[in-house]
Write a structure and sequence with these properties.
alpha+beta, Outer Surface Protein A, domain 3, 2 domains, four-stranded antiparallel sheet, three-stranded antiparallel sheet, 2 helices
Length: 187
């Protein structure tokens, strides 16, 4: 049996779980999420023990992989609606900054124009330090959406290897390159 898939998922008391067909709906204090799962995977919710159990129909390699995947996705949903997920980004560069205007994130990154990005529904962007190095916190209940939006923001201006300017994850190490060395050589 899958090592991850066979583990039960403990559901906190403030989380509501409903399973309809092959869709799991989970609602908690941080939000509401739903996830479809494969028809050959069975998801059971025990209300007395407050536990979710995932079972598979076959021992083939494909179903073993689906078993663990389904359990991990549901576990991430339960954690997301109770605690939430967050990613921290740093914007490093002279004159680079970030601000939130209504539902848009506006980034000034040295281009001729500011970059405007619409913040997806369910995602919250906090700016703790608007200027160099600007610090952004992207948070929300859906782990995939938080990671995807963070990656889209980073993709606008990835850090360059010479001065390290650009958008990077907090704690990310940028491999630096040496610049051109000027020597006084006699020809």
């Amino acid at each position: 049996m899958s090592r991850i898939g066979r583990q039960t998922i403990k559901v906190p008391s403030d989380v509501k779980v409903t399973i309809s067909g092959n869709i799991v709906n989970i609602e908690g204090p941080k939000g509401k999420l739903n996830q479809p799962f494969h028809p050959d995977i069975t998801v059971e919710y025990n209300q007395q023990d407050k536990q979710i159990l995932v079972k598979r129909s076959s021992d083939e390699k494909y179903y073993k992989a689906l078993h663990g995947l389904t359990r991990a996705l549901i576990s991430n949903m339960v954690l997301g609606v109770t605690k939430g997920y967050s990613k921290n980004l740093e914007i490093v560069g002279l004159g680079y900054n970030a601000k939130v205007q209504g539902k848009d994130l506006v980034l000034s990154l040295g281009y001729t124009h500011p970059v405007t990005m619409e913040v997806p529904k369910g995602i919250k962007v906090d700016i703790t330090n608007p200027t160099n190095p600007a610090k952004l916190t992207i948070s929300g209940p859906d782990k995939q959406m938080v990671g995807q939006f963070s990656a889209v923001i980073r993709e606008v201006k990835p850090p360059e290897p010479y001065k390290g300017m650009g958008i990077k994850y907090e704690g990310e190490v940028i491999r630096r390159k040496a610049g051109k060395a000027f020597t006084s050589g006699a020809a």
